[in-house]
Amino acid sequence: MLEMPQFTSRRHRRWWILGAIFIVAGIAAVPVAGVVHHMVGNAVGRTTVSTSADGNERTIYWRDYPGVAGVDPLEVLAGPTPEEGNETARTMVAEIKAALSAEFRQEWAPVDAQSRSPFHGPIENQYGGKSLLTNVNGPESQSTSVPQTWAEKQRAIAIIGDVTHRYGYGPR
Predict the structure, then answer these.
(1) Tens digit of each residue's pLDDT, the chain (172 residues)
(2) Domain span at residue 27?
């Protein structure tokens, strides 16, 4: 029987180890490449190339869009200012509280004296940048009790719906 020298089996073992390392590295490189591609693609964001009448090209970066994707700019411009919206929300919540108090004799927990500002901005424009718009959270309010029966709860929901509908919320 012919014996193989010791160095031949070591050489084969080295090739197997190197091959296994390359296979594992190749498998790991696929998700890493995907993450890198995603990061580079989002760094620039969406763009549009516009050509003027004189032939000059201009790249528009949508991350600089001052509005929010999917929201009609004319609707935003026709709407109230954040301060007007906040005042309207306060009036609407006061009407809801008065209507529920009259119907169910609800009492209300005191409002936190250290409440935060209702204005939060800028918000994202959904193109990877910041919008010039501001998010306004309405005033918080909490009752100290709730209607007891299912019918009373449905009536409370209907009352809230009637008031909010007068302010333009809900189905039209």
Answers:
(1) 555 555 556 667 788 888 888 888 888 888 888 887 777 766 666 788 888 889 899 888 888 888 888 888 898 889 889 899 999 999 999 999 999 999 999 899 988 767 778 888 788 888 888 888 888 888 888 899 989 999 999 999 999 999 999 998 887 5
(2) 8-64
Q: Indicate the pTM of the whole model.
A: 0.60
Question: Per the domain annotation, does 150 fall within a domain?
Answer: yes
> Are 117 and 151 in a shared domain?
yes
Q: Give burial (CB, 10 Å; 0-12/13-18/19+) of 67.
A: middle
- The radius of gyration of the chain's CA atoms, rounded to the nearest angstrom, is 31
